[in-house]
What does this fold into?
Amino acid sequence: MTPMVVAYASQLSVAPGERVSCMVSCFGVPEYEARLVRVICGDQNPAGPGFRCEPVAEVPARRLPGRVQAVHAGSFAQLPAPADGWQLSAGFTLQATIWPTTPDKGQQAIVSVDSGHGGALQLRIAADGSLALRIVHPDHGVHTVATGVPMLVREWYLVAASYDPRTGEVLLVQEALRPELRAAGDTSFLLRLPTGLAADLDGPVLLAGQSAGTCRDRLVAKHLYNGKIERPRLVERPVAVADIRELATAEVPAELRAVTAAWDLSQDIPTQLVRALPGRAVDGLLVNLPTRAVKGSNWTGAEMAWRHRPQEYGAIHFHDDDLYDAGWEVDFELEVPATLASGVYALHLQGDEAEDYVPLFVRPAPDGPRADVVFVAPTASYLAYANEHMVTDAPLVQLVTDQVSMLQPQDLFLAEHREYGGSTYDTHSDGSGICHSSRLRPILNMRPQYASWLGGSGSALWQFAADTHITDWLASTGTRFDVLTDEDLHADGAEALAPYRVVITGTHPEYTSQRMRDAYESHTRSGGRLMYLGGNGFYWRTSFPDDLPGVIEVRRTESGTRTWAAEPGEYYHASSGEYGGLWVRCGQSPQQLVGVGFAAQGFDVSSYYRRQAGSFDPRAEFVFRGVGTDERIGDFGLIGGGAAGLEIDRHDVALGSPPHALLLASSEQHTDTYMLTLEELLANRPTATGTQDPLVRADLVLFETAGGGAVFSTGSIAWAGSLSHTGGDNNVARITHNVLMRFLDPELFVPPHPAGAAPHRPGDPRAATTHTDTHVFSAVPPRRDPATSRSASPTASALRQGNPQ
Amino acid sequence: MEHQPASDRPALELAREFQRAPLGHHSPALARVLRVLRSEPHEGKHVIVCTKPYQEYRLGRLSARRGEPVALIPGLVYGSREDAEWAVFSRRWEQVYGEPLDQLGGRGDLVGEPT
It folds into this structure.
């Protein structure tokens, strides 16, 4: 195979003086040199400033041997045996209520028990999709019985196996909960095996897998199961069908409690804990992040939030490709020099025929001096896209981008190594959406020099590599700046931004937690300034689970541009209990925060902006110094050839843009590949494309905030790709620099007097002409009036929750 | 795959239009053709693989089975992304409409053997 070096670090954000560990796997690379480098520009397009990294001289390079480290993906539960072990010599019963999503995949363990002495039990799905019991006896070999009746996909079943060693009798129960299915055939099967096959076992019970030994001191599971498991039980005696049905209820019958291990998966849903019910069970742990807060077999639909009826969310959805922590052994550690300036760095691992760069964001020392400017690296968004497989899994993307997708060596590697885990844009092997992403694994598309099919034409940059155009430009203008990450912002909230006058975002800060959003809002409302130099920001509500460093959770709920849809009733995040989905649907729209919000996406070519009336307002005079009245803004650039592109945002008062926000410029001439985002459509219409719909555009917006602050937004991912054009002498760089200089000036911004701000009120006749649904069915596209900037989306009235600020 | 009847074959001028400007605004007729060509089935769908940034591009075909490698087509190497894009367009055009586009030449010329 092609030589590859892949690696990850223990942290994404590190402070000077901290230690960071690096975990490396090498394929066909016998040794490599490791060094710390500062990433200046991550774009290798020869038409641009070029890829540049500088070694950090204080950290000596080291030569290290390469080795292969395996990733063991797949989630399962590990439930320890009681201190005296499982007393099974008088027989046993294993059972659970299950919703298998791939019953035809082959052998999958539902509930298994092991021992270190050669004995094992598995309640499993057999190769034919039917329920099976497999007994491995240390002296009497392996015995398997199965119902021979395949289970149906995504149907609930009560499954159980009971074995009596005195008689050799096996009772298999495979009982569909849907009455029609239950009535259609046998639900219990009496079978026979040799007598005397039961033996005590001392290993853990596993849910959704069976032990395959250990690797790096961690248990590894095989025969991984896809689907939900609810109410797992192990009874230390054989029981009859009536008892099995009793045991499948929430409570363990009192007379069986002393011999029954039962777990209640509806407890502690935000955590990785599996709680034992009174009896023989001991609390256990989940491995590799299965999905909780999913509907149980008893879900009534009376409540959609799991917090209101956790007892109806007592199932866990396991996937054979879930991954939290690759758990690799450390290949080297590095101490970040105490004097190292905050910035974007990487661990560069250079082999003869392959290399890798592992990004590291060095934040300022907690007690050190701060710059006036901070760049917030949108690491939650990097995680959301981490190792995405959209090109190989979703052939529709060639229609969405109007190009044949271009893959990189990293993509070819990921296509064959699904164990590295997918992104929150991908689906699991069973078709369910991936709602978690972790940074404790190599993330091959979060790299300098990585070109993405999502990045349009030209440099084809997306996320990390694109964001280096912002930090490179800041450095090239001599601006001192610090770097923080989304994780820092989430952890420290408003305090993280308090030292800074100007906060600068990345190109696509799409994924935002409540604490992050509150931090931005607190910043702008207490005199701080925010430069949102991106597109489709602050779009998806995101959670960082408290108990799992480096993980995000996202639920693709009712609307938005989505690559999968959460199941009804599963819209609330497990980790935080928050209602997932679009921030605009949560009443906290991006328009409220930054004046613009996601309007459309395209991914072929970018376009330019043209100045609007707001740019001639004296309040915006500083923005356009040195920019001509009729100049096209950004009709050049490395990302799609223009400053307005990929994903673009629009100003819209009806969706929350502050009424006094100035619409400075709007993009135009987008191709028909750019289509209005779905949450703005109440009904399909064939005019929702770039050449036909004036709602498809990027808006440049400025507004003042309380306390003397201000917000400037570009509403386009591609903006950053134009900064370096002709050595930084261009109108995109000029506007950005003008804004930065004014934002650094402590002189307070003052919002205009309300009388001049044309506030939006319900019933306002001007507003009524715009945010109406009628143009959805109108033959004429809605008109936009740049003077009043009142272009409203067709669904604005449906989306709006009370008065925008 | 069955070719479409010759009477349904789009005008060669649309292929020329694409050859001139593979990216950006297209005429409505070309856009329709592109939607057909890019709806190639998942199994065997063409992709471009960048083997040397800004220098060397190859063609690959996807597998619809998860975990299977992207199969590189032997012997086809292009010096620009646009050439690779045109090569995919030509292959799909011929596959769907039964008409080779060799006569249009130009983009799509091989630059050499894979290295």
